[in-house]
């Protein structure tokens, strides 16, 4: 597999070299730039950029970015136009590849047709950002956040069965990955491998992934990267729109639906609102040869937002509620040691389950509420003050298989409250510099609700984290440089009963973080991004104090309160070629993590009245991770397109000179799509076929309960076609995952000891916009 992927990479570089060498020696300069509103610094989509002498131009994209290629050296007049805003006509001298920033001024904020976008700050970073949006996001509707993001190279999932998954970026997951839900860092019990993000993917208009160490901007939990889930901006003029999704799946016989509606006030200019909700109802998952007992899912979510935007002031109030019940595979909980050993050896459940929607114990019941209040105020010369408050309440109950009345009581009952406050000052100039300084405050309180009859897995604790940061960016022609510095202080106080005695401990952690990055346009089609960042992460409460059964993964976990903070040094480089018919993005990275904390399987089993369980122990070492991500797209002609996505991750335990557990194996996905126009319209239907190759993980730690599963090959098929319902678009999709119904296991699934992955799944998708 690795040799095959090396040949693929070699072929791409040879092809890239031929294309670059074939470029003409003159008139190859590129103008890049960004266009935003002067009144709120938000990006402007569909602004018109025109070089008057050449009669050529471009239109800005969703993020306000534009690019004009094939420019000769010289002096030109550049004109920028956008409805309701004053034109900019500026003389520019082009001697090399150049980068510009333009801010358009609204001529009259009350003019009908002028739209000030809802205030949604983009993440501006020199690290390459990969996104799911538009049609690609529609294709992912109905999937979990983790499974949706597997479309981005370098992103994988860490799973517990077929219905719980969480994102993995460059081999890191859980508390090393930060998820921003509408600008608020998502705070739940994310330390658990079987604790999926408490977030409804249907709220997203765009999901972006930043793979670099972003500790300076967001704090310790961003050392492995960031996942940004952004809804659409709130409307601010008198218009109404909405969207309805309906998805049915054959595997699990599930139904998944969502609806959203947004509008603006006719009486108050700048006032807008949005309402959204979704639900999911699914029964037992089926592997190719059998049903997985007790793997149903229930989900009910809703959110609402209201906001106001004016020339100087913007504010938004947002609320969301997430509620789910998830069944846990019953066969993962065995009654005695011999049964545990037998099911691991058998590799699949002994019991013959049937399809049902009923969910019994073991199960999870999770609720998450989020309230966000955000405001900003525009000062002179493009400066802006930002203030954001967030409140979150996370309730998690986990139920074991227990006898009698105790069966109705949760064995784990946690309630986590989080308050966060973010303040920043940003400045933007037409010259070379822009940047920001800010303060982040977080307060958390975690409580074990009495009445479980079980010693709590983690203790009660209180946590306070304060961080201050400064980031500055320099832009000159085809070069962008960015650097930042941050200081964090964290205090944690924990209390638990240990052998009947109350044990209280407090911890103080401090750290400086820094990064330096840049973007340089090597030619009109070739750019390179580089970013080196230091990051840190203090040990999480579960890594320090776990002392019992993790019901969701049917395992005993043991922590160590004497762990020290992780220290990371990550260097990420991305080479991006963007031609007319060929696009290639290649990312390479190296990440040294001192004091790396990981969960390691031991050779012990624990037997109790609750059953027999494998024992895992948290350990600390020095680790080195490196790898490559590849993403390419080649347009054969106006109908056919070929894509390739691949990733390689290597991770080494430096101290013990062996491998780390739960690191993704090599992956390569290739696909072919065919699109054809529908009559005289510009819309098109699309058919795509892809093959996913996943290698066997041969770099295993010294001990595991079962050998890594064999590699596998999956075929997936999809058809997507648009139709008109009146004047509104309706998208109809038919997707088939695992077309050949292959029986396989994935190394990154903690239930691979007991069961196989999901078999063939046919999904029927409807998306209606009005």
Written account of the structure:
- Keywords: Cell outer membrane, Membrane, Receptor, TonB box, Transmembrane, Transmembrane beta strand, Transport.
- Residues 360-739 form the TonB-dependent receptor-like beta-barrel domain.
- By secondary structure, the protein is mainly beta.
- The longest helix has 20 residues, at 2-21.
- The protein has a 22-stranded antiparallel barrel.
- It has two domains: 28-104, Carboxypeptidase-like, regulatory domain (Immunoglobulin-like, Sandwich); 129-769, Beta Barrel (Maltoporin, Chain A).
- The model is unreliable at 7-25 and 108-123 (pLDDT under 50).
Shape: globular
Strand-pairing-aware structural class = mainly beta
At the first level of CATH, the class of the largest domain is Mainly Beta
Arithmetic mean of pLDDT = 86
Radius of gyration: 26 Å
List the defining traits of the structure above.
siderophore uptake transmembrane transporter activity, Plug_dom, tonb box, Maltoporin, Chain A, Immunoglobulin-like, 2 domains, 6% helix, 770 residues, five-stranded mixed sheet, 6 helices, mainly beta
SSE diagram, text form:
Elements: H1 2-21, E1 29-37, E2 48-51, E3 56-59, E4 65-71, E5 74-81, E6 88-94, E7 98-104, E8 129-133, H2 134-139, H3 145-149, E9 155-159, E10 165-169, E11 172-173, E12 178-181, E13 184-185, E14 206-210, H4 215-218, E15 226-230, E16 240-249, E17 254-264, E18 271-282, E19 286-287, E20 290-291, E21 297-309, E22 313-327, H5 337-346, E23 363-378, E24 384-399, E25 412-428, E26 433-448, E27 460-476, E28 479-498, E29 501-521, E30 526-537, H6 541-545, E31 547-550, E32 555-558, E33 566-578, E34 582-608, E35 611-635, E36 640-653, E37 658-659, E38 667-677, E39 684-694, E40 712-725, E41 728-737, E42 761-769
Parallel strand pairs: 1-7, 12-15, 32-35
Antiparallel strand pairs: 1-4, 2-3, 2-5, 5-6, 8-14, 9-10, 10-11, 12-13, 14-15, 16-17, 16-42, 17-18, 18-21, 19-20, 21-22, 22-23, 23-24, 24-25, 25-26, 26-27, 27-28, 28-29, 29-30, 30-33, 31-32, 33-34, 34-35, 35-36, 36-37, 36-38, 38-39, 39-40, 40-41, 41-42
